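Ticket #4471: structure output looks truncated?

Reporter: J.K.
Steps to reproduce: submitted the chain below (126 residues) through the standard prediction queue, then opened the result file.
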Amino acid sequence: MSDTGPRTPLSRQTDRWLEPGKVNIQIIYVLYLVSFAIGITALVGIVLAYLNREKAEPWARTHYTWAIRTFWIALLFCIISALLTVMVVGVLGFVATAVWIVVRCVVGLQKAAREEPITNPESWLV
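Returned output as attached by the reporter:
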């Protein structure tokens, strides 16, 4: 007969994407980029960033701060652009905000792939 005693469950590889680190950071940036097609994914990304920021290594913590600030600053820019759509300037604001988000996500993805910290995570610029 085989031993049917208590066993510890094996860790699944798919659970690692929820843990703070390189893969989780990359998922957050990809969720932000996918939010251009499916808007709710940005909310999932910001929740992941807030949940993992305090548990992360110092280099990764800069990415979480960068991702959180990207979300909130982009939301601010979108609100301002929506108010300015009465004038045509708002449309340009939406385009500029989209470009700004893409650039910040690409920079973040590149640095996360090399496990490098974001130089100035508090910056409003790239």
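Triage note (M.O.): checked the attachment and the full token line is present. DSSP finds four helices and no strands in the chain.
Status: closed, working as intended.
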